[in-house]
Write a sequence for this structure.
């Protein structure tokens, strides 16, 4: 019996500390979940002197379609647990940076299972359309008993049942007061006085797996930064929040989460913590992200996306 290693060219990128192995989808990787689980491991995974951290938050398989104008990229994110995420805000920004490098175009369309977003690249700064955040129970999704109000209108002999399921707004889920929103993936967002005062790794798993979230949820904490509390904050710069996210699929806290940052802004608006259409700054541990959530229109997410290194990894370890 011999063990065969095929090698594949990879790059590593990060967006505000949310880091990804990037593989061109033309490469043949027989087992994507096994590849992601092996190389994302924070202790034994991909390692390079140009990277501050071993392992990664996921693998982005990117299929470039350069014949379109603007060029398109089909993005598939395989997470460390082998699952595929429908959307990833920082991953989509990395996909745009990667495609801009190859095509020379500073405008790209990023196709994801959650929809398509237009991206704009300006040096290291990448902005992406994130779609309209939804609080609708079927979009999050939520598992709730339908509140059936029997409209009891008899029409053509058939009884019409109007059923309405309630959104989940500032409700207690496993001890945390959360609002549920889908920004491409589900987030349970809790506003707290100080994100650093919460033991996220202790409280998040029960919320992430709560019955009300049949597909699970990412758990995002947010706290407002007041200009008076922080001398670095420019009081004219618009609303600002700090963020921490425990991610489904990573099953731990990440340095940054783009869908989570958009979720913070969308929920802040929904709860009237912010008004108007101003750009909202959301700061996860890994940096600053700029968000807009215009009424009824696509949210946008902007911030740095940077390449760390290029290298090679084993595709899979096969026994023959
Ligand atoms: N880090 C990503 C989110 C990945 C989504 C994933 N954790 C899930 O919902 O399963 C972001 O920047 O939006």
């Amino acid at each position: 019996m011999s063990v065969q290693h095929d090698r594949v060219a990879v790059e590593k990128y990060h967006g505000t500390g949310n880091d990804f192995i990037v593989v061109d989808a033309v490469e043949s990787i027989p087992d994507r979940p096994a590849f992601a689980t092996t190389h994302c491991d924070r202790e034994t995974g991909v390692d390079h002197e140009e990277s501050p951290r071993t392992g990664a938050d996921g693998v982005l398989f990117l299929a470039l379609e350069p014949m379109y104008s603007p060029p398109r990229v089909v993005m598939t994110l395989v997470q460390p647990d082998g699952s595929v995420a429908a959307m990833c805000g920082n991953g989509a920004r990395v996909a745009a940076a990667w495609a801009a490098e190859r095509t020379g175009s500073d405008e790209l369309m990023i196709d994801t299972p959650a929809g398509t977003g237009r991206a704009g690249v300006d040096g290291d700064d990448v902005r992406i359309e994130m779609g309209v955040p939804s609080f609708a129970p079927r979009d999050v999704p939520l598992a709730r008993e339908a509140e059936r109000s029997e409209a009891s209108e008899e029409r053509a002999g058939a009884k019409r049942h109007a059923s309405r399921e309630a959104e989940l707004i500032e409700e207690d889920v496993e001890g945390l007061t959360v609002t549920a929103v889908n920004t491409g993936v589900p987030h349970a967002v809790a506003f707290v006085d100080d994100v650093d005062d919460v033991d996220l790794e202790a409280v998040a798993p029960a919320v992430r797996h709560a019955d009300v979230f049949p597909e699970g949820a990412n758990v995002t904490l947010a706290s407002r930064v007041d200009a008076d509390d922080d001398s670095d904050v420019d009081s004219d710069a618009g609303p600002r929040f700090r963020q921490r996210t425990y991610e489904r699929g990573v099953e731990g806290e990440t340095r940054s989460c783009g869908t989570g940052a958009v979720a913070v802004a969308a929920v802040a608006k929904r709860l009237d913590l912010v008004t108007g259409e101003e750009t909202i700054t959301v700061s996860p541990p890994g940096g600053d992200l700029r968000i807009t959530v215009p009424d009824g229109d696509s949210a946008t997410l902007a911030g740095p996306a940077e390449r760390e290194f290029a290298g090679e990894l084993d595709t899979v370890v096969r026994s023959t």
